[in-house]
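MODEL INPUT / OUTPUT PAIR
PAIR INDEX: 1
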Amino acid sequence: MTVNSLSAARTLCELRDWKLSNLELQKLLYLAEMYNLGMYGEPLIDGEFEAWDYGPVSPDVYARARGFGSGPIPNVFHWVSEVPASSSEYAMLKEIAAQAKRFTAGQLVNITHWSSGAWAKFYKPGIHGIRIPKSAIRQEYLDRTEKQQAG
């Protein structure tokens, strides 16, 4: 089952005590999508990601959170349904939120800007609206896993 991108955003923000910036939230959403696609072969989020200047972006989430700049996003997602805490989708979001605590926003940008990743394959400087196919996001997970196993 997929979850609404705004519900996923709400869950990540709640898990991180509403301290995420829009940039950080975008990266965590993308990483959660990539891991879910790679590990289970299914998308986590029902929305699409686009290749923007600062990495992969969920346009729906960006539209709700853009007004807060680099500051923390307040609860602008209060009106969307929550991801059930007993679901596998919640477990994936919780794991990503926990693992990403050790990275700065800049490090998250570097991770999602991997030169062999899906964003790099579709990014065109200054152009918004270029969709990153779910198949390319899944392939990024597989390529990262292969690279890590090769040492």
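PAIR INDEX: 2
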Amino acid sequence: MKTVVFVSEKGGVGKTRLSDELYFYYTRQNVPVSLHSFDGQYKNRNNDKKVDNPTVAVVDTPGRIMDDKTIQTIQGADIVVIPTRPTGGNIESFTRTVSLVKENMDCPVIVAVNGVNRFTASVSFMEWLQKYRQKENLDVVLTIPQSEAIVQAENCRCSVN
């Protein structure tokens, strides 16, 4: 079983939405997948999203990442996804998350910049991130455009697709 863990110490960056989308993607591909949420805000979210013998486990962690359960999950991950928003106010929590993840894992790290747009704050953040990525040897940076469809999917508890 492959384990994909979504982690960030900051709330509101898209961990839940992105973990849901990855779960929906695997479901559409007929891949046996389970979705696990450690975020207490969504207690009923994954009751019907676990299968026997999954090929993939998608794990959504809470905003606080210093707890033992999250660290153990990071240590067992095959891939760690760190979502962030493209603003300067996210840099401090993002860099702390990267440090913690790198201390506790030996797998690829994907940075998912959620809500990218054409405005100056987003452009400045992306310029900073490219330099930081090289310094920290981060594997992949994905950008997710700011989109009303993502907000609507979250409200409907369904996939964007």
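PAIR 2 NOTE: The chain has one domain: 2-156.
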